[in-house]
Amino acid sequence: MTTWDKRTYKQNEEDLKTASPHLTSVGGKVDKFALDKSTGAQITITYPHHEVHSGSSFRASHFAAGGSGTKATISFTTADTDKWLHVIFTSRSNVEAIFTFGEGATVTGSSGSDYAPRNRNRNSTKTSGVSGAGSAGAAGNCTVGGTVTDFGTILEQLHFGSGVKVGGDTRGTAEWVLAPNTVYAVEIESQAASSEVFVDADWYEHSDKE
Asked: What CATH number was assigned to the domain covering residues 56-207?
């Protein structure tokens, strides 16, 4: 007989697998549902949030200031594996600017600087699978400030006006799942003097279950 109390689903493991095949066990013990004490609602977190906890979520950013034509740029080559990047971007400028995101980009060798993407779980020792496109091209790094001579296939381009700040949307509307072993570049370029431009890439690395 299936029995519920306020906190746990009490039944032996085999019966539980039959009744609820979506549940799994670890070390012979069935995981418990976390329930809100006030309403009894099940407590969950989003998958991207889970990736932060697992140490597979990373962030890279670049800021630049100057005159018209000032650029903030992030470029990298994705790993040649089935661990794909699920990425969203944020870009900001205090003046008129153009945002460009390209696939199959060409970045001048040795341009820019290596930047180690920050693991969003500061207790994790995991590193990203990307490598720099430009700069030293070291594994585990992306390139900031590299010279992009060709964006390849432009996946997204935005032109926005003076004083407008463009920010990232929710993953459901703005997330890109990137191809392996491919050079990507994202850049924001100012179109006026006294400019401050910023671009941020936020991603997790995940192998498809299908």
From this structure: 2.60.120
Of 113, 146, 123, residue with least CA distance to 57: 123
> What phi, psi does 143 have (nearest 5°)?
-110, 135
Whether 65 and 92 have beta carbons less than 8 Å apart is answered as: no
Task: Write down the pLDDT at residue 10.
Answer: 45
The ranges assigned to domains in the chain are: 3-44, 56-207
With contact defined as beta carbons under 8 Å apart, do 71 and 62 qualify? no
Mean pLDDT by 10 residues, the chain (210 residues): 44 47 49 64 69 82 96 97 93 91 96 94 93 88 96 93 54 82 96 93 86
- Side-chain half-sphere exposure of 10, counting CA atoms within 13 A: 5
pTM exceeds cut of 0.85: no
Q: What are phi and psi of 27, to 5 degrees?
A: 60, 30
CA angle 189, 200, 180 (to 5 degrees): 100
Strand locations in the chain, DSSP E?
A: 3-4, 9-10, 25-26, 29-30, 57-66, 71-77, 83-93, 97-103, 106-107, 113-115, 118-119, 131-132, 142-144, 148-150, 153-160, 176-177, 183-190, 195-207
Q: What is the DSSP letter of 11?
A: S
Closest among 132, 157, 166 to 146, alpha carbons compared: 132
DSSP reduced 3-state for 41: coil
